[in-house]
Write a sequence for this structure.
């Protein structure tokens, strides 16, 4: 009935644009990749634009600096009759400024994968010279963050992956509550449990293995647990670095029990994730962190922090365990508790699966279409 109701609406033409490669192994790109077919199923005329579609930029830093302007140039050509132009991150500000003057009927949507300054705050110190660190700080704070803020403020509506980020933007005074929305991404059905709860073992972490994702906490917690439990194993998936480099963070005495996959396609991750007893994800900040939802869908008992999906979908003690950000002792206690308490582990895993089953891509598309149509109606009233 819901699908028929949505198909009966006026056909909306949407451009979904981002400066990410069209690669569903990347959480940032997976959202528009999955939303495109779901929006089409609802009768939306949708076109996705990815990094490969943009006019060529020169060099990594030059490409990043010119991305909003290259994207604006492309959208000026491709989106003259679009009802909605939805741009990810801070790359929308240049086109938004143009469209406000030249295309006043278009609804403009700033789609956030996470607030850049909060992500930066979670990164921690980097191994680089003082001058390079200062230049990077100025670039991030005074270029990227300003572009993001301008995009959010200029758009008709700013859409976030988590309710926490939407509320934070309102708290900062960038938007009113009416000008923001939160749409949790969906989880792919191939993350469904494939291994019975009683047969699961070991601990898994998924994500780029760096400070913001809680690498220091993972190393501290799992080094203790691996030393205490000779039969326990840890698997790191999608670490974004050579396996040897990721392994080097662990003590040589336990390193042989750390299995590392540098990169995994989503369907391969879905098959692998369901083998584990505990999912450990002590991240410091997430725009959402879809891996948490995927682990829940796979029936794995989750230990994570109250940010992104941890704040929006994890109910402490009901479908997972929440631990304070950066607290290695509390995280160690939570993982140990799950390893020692099979009934609790299985209960949290089962409830996590039940809750995650409702967080689907078709649901995300329906919520997003509602937002698009409200933005179009608001734009027509302003003309």
């Amino acid at each position: 009935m819901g699908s028929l109701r949505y198909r009966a609406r006026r056909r909306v033409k949407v451009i979904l644009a981002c400066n990410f490669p069209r690669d569903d192994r990347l959480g940032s790109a997976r959202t528009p990749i999955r939303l495109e077919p779901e929006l089409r199923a609802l009768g939306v005329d949708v076109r996705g634009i990815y990094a490969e579609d943009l006019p060529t930029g020169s060099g990594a830093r030059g490409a990043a600096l010119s991305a909003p302007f290259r994207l604006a140039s492309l959208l000026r050509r491709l989106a003259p009759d679009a009802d909605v132009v939805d741009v990810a991150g801070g790359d929308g500000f240049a086109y938004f400024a143009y469209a406000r003057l030249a295309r006043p009927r278009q609804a403009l949507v700033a789609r956030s994968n996470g607030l850049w300054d909060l992500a930066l705050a979670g990164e921690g110190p980097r191994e680089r010279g003082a001058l390079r660190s200062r230049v990077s700080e100025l670039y991030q704070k005074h270029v990227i963050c300003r572009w993001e803020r301008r995009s959010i403020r200029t758009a008709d509506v700013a859409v976030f992956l988590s309710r926490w980020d939407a509320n934070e933007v309102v708290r900062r005074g960038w938007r009113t509550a009416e000008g923001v929305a939160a749409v949790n991404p969906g989880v792919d059905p191939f993350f469904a449990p494939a291994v019975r709860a009683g047969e699961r073992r070991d601990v898994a972490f998924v994500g780029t293995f760096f400070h913001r994702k809680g690498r220091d906490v993972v190393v501290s917690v799992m080094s203790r647990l691996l030393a205490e439990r000779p039969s326990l194993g840890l698997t790191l998936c999608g670490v974004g670095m050579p396996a040897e480099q990721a392994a080097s963070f662990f003590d040589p005495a336990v390193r042989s029990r750390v299995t590392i996959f540098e990169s995994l396609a989503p369907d391969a991750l879905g098959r692998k994730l369901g083998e584990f007893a505990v999912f450990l994800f002590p991240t410091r900040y997430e725009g959402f962190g879809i891996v948490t939802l995927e682990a829940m869908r796979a029936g794995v008992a989750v230990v994570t922090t109250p940010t992104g999906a941890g704040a929006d979908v994890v109910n402490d003690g009901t479908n997972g365990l929440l631990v304070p950000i950066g607290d290695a002792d509390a995280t160690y206690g939570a993982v140990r508790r799950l390893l020692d308490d099979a009934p609790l582990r299985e209960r949290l895993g089962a409830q996590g699966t039940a809750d995650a089953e409702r967080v689907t891509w078709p649901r995300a598309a329906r919520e997003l279409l509602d937002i698009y149509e409200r933005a179009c109606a608001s734009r027509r009233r302003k003309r």
